[in-house]
Each structure stands twice: as structure tokens, then as C-alpha cells.
Amino acid sequence: MFALNTARRPLGLYALVVAVAAALLLTTALANVASAHGSVIGPASRNYDCLDRWGGNHMAPQMATEDPMCYQAWQANAGAMWNWNGLYREGVGGNHQGAIPNGQLCSGGRTEGGRYNAMDTIGNWHATSINNSFSLRLFDQASHGADYIRVYVTQQGFSPTTQALGWNNLELVAQIGNTPASRWQSVPSGVQIDIPVNAPGRTGRHMVYTIWQASHMDQSYYFCSDVNFGGTGSTPPPTTAPPTTAPPTTAPPTTAPPTTAPPTTAPPTTPPPASAGCTASYSVASTWSGGFQGDVRVTAGSSAISGWTVTLTYPSGQTVQQAWNATVSASGSTVTARNAGYNGNLGAGASTSFGFIGSSAGGTPSVTCSAT
């Protein structure tokens, strides 16, 4: 009996030690997460998405068949998911392509001792369905703000399920400049910012690649998000809308074309409404003492356009400090914005958006849009 009791004591003591150690590890992990940084949460980065969908059940055997890419990532290094907000490099000095070789973009060049290497694995990752015009949301847990944020999308023809991601596969489609955390949206446990993105001409599977240069030090974050473009937004070809404007059912060619000899007189009256045109809507995203962020959505008319110019006329003078997704200038009370090189082509009814930082609220402007 005595021997049996002494045999149980070490086991009980061992179990207690294991439990305490586990609690300490969990506390340390939570402390690291709490003091860490951020990630793209929409469309979600690879490791954030794996944590979001499997974190509460990451030991489930069905993950191997239902979600093999997340499964291999959890098996390779579970810390990559628990530390979803730590995928960064320091001291890059803005030379991202020099610091990160092709094929290693999703792991930030195998940063953090290789913790995130599985993010580079080629395969059928879970993809978020989005439109060609979408909003990218970046969450900043430590409220560092940004020197800049750049958003890239893979070119049409790239296959993320069979190809490794390289710099030559990417096209810059959106960016913003220096934006302190005070200008981000305050949310529980941090701040977040939404960046309007327009990636025309994409269909099917693609990758969104985001570089966030944090403001507190030379710290660069790199995020791969898998997406599936559903073909809306600016993707529909301009030929889809005109047939709906002049339906063939109204004037069947078999009924009266021979008797109504001047089909050349009526048809020309239909295309003019479908000529190049656009509209613009204005809103104030946020304000602070002495400044504000203005957002403008540009929508093409009943036919495709290849470029646009938006004019905002304020009741009082404005000073534009910075802008994104457009070339913006101010003269007195007038702010003029012209499309960037990547968002001027819009299909019929498609839209894009741009934003800018102004010196003061300045009242509500009148807004006009002209297109080519």
C-alpha cells in the first residue's frame, strides 16, 4: 500500500508541473499576441484565415481532407497561426524586393526563424470571394499607424494553386501614404483601416499581396490573401450593357424593318445616352482637429470609360496633403482628381474610389465628374 502511494505521488506532481508549464506557455503566448502588431483580416491573410476558421478546433483530423493547406500549415508550425500578427521583417529600408526572394513573399522571406515558411506552400488555399472593386481591411493591434500601405493583385493568368508567387506576378493596384493611427477607425483592442481597391480584368483565383510599413520603426509586414474574383465590379465587358439599353425585342428585325426603311434614323438616338459619362459621390470618412479624410466613389455611366476627372468645389479653400488611388490637386476652393493609371478603365456601371487628406472640413463641396 505504501509503495502504491509513493508511486502515485510523482505522477500527481508531474501532472501538476505539466499543467503549470502549460498555463505559463499560454500566458506567454497571449502576452506576445497582446503586445504584437496586426494583419490583413479582410480578405484574410493565410495564417489569420487558418486561425479564424480552425483555431477553436485545430486538432480536428478532418482538417487534413477539408482544408489541406491550413492543415499543413498547422502541422508545420502552429505558432504561425497563434502569432498571426507577427509576420514582419525589420530594417528592410524600403527595399522589399531585395530582402524577399521570389517564392518567399508570403513568409516575408522566411522571417522569424522560418515560423511562417508554410505560407509559401503552393496549393489550393481557402479563397475569399470578392468583386473587382473591393475594400481591404488592415487591423493594427498596437496602433502603430502606417508610413505607407501598398496593395498588389496578381496579374490575370497567374495560378496560385500551381505557381509560386514572384514579384513579377504582381501589379500595384492601391496605396496610401503616411497615416497615423489617430486617423484609423478605433475598434476594440486596436485600430483598423479600410483601403478601397480596384483590380479590373481579373476573374477566378488570384492573390492579394499587402505591404504595410509601420510607422513606429523600420518594420515591414507582408500578407498573402487568397481570393476568387466573381466577375463583377469593373470586370464586365462594355458589350454587356448596351444590349440591355436597346433590347432587340422592341424592334424585331423580322416585323417591320423592310417597311420602316430608316432604321438609320432611330438607332443613332439610342447610343448617345450610352456615351462616356460618370457620376461621383462624396463622403467624409473621418475628421480630427484641423483635418479630415475625404472619400469619393466614381461610377461609370451606361458605357465603358477609359478615364475620369472629378471636381470638388468647396465653400472655402482647401489644402490637400496626400491622396491615394488618384492624382489630386487643389487651387483655392477647387479640388481636382484624375484617375490613376490602374483605375481609369471602368466597365459600364462599374465603380472605383479614391481618397485624400484635407486641411479642414471646409463644408460640403459640389461634385462633378467627367469621363473620356
Structure description:
The protein is of the alpha+beta class. It is 19% helix and 34% strand. It is built from eight helices and 18 strands. It has helices spanning 2-34, 46-54, 63-66, 68-76, 79-82, 96-99, 111-114, 241-245, and strands at 38-42, 88-90, 128-130, 133-140, 146-154, 170-176, 185-187, 190-198, 204-214, 219-229, 278-288, 291-300, 308-313, 320-324, 326-331, 334-339, 351-358, 366-371. The strands form four sheets. Strands 2, 3, 5, 6, 9 and 10 form a six-stranded mixed β-sheet that branches. The chain has a four-stranded antiparallel β-sheet with strand order 1-4-8-7, with no helix packed on it. The chain is globular. The relative contact order is 0.12. Mean pLDDT is 80; it is low at 1-35 and 231-274.
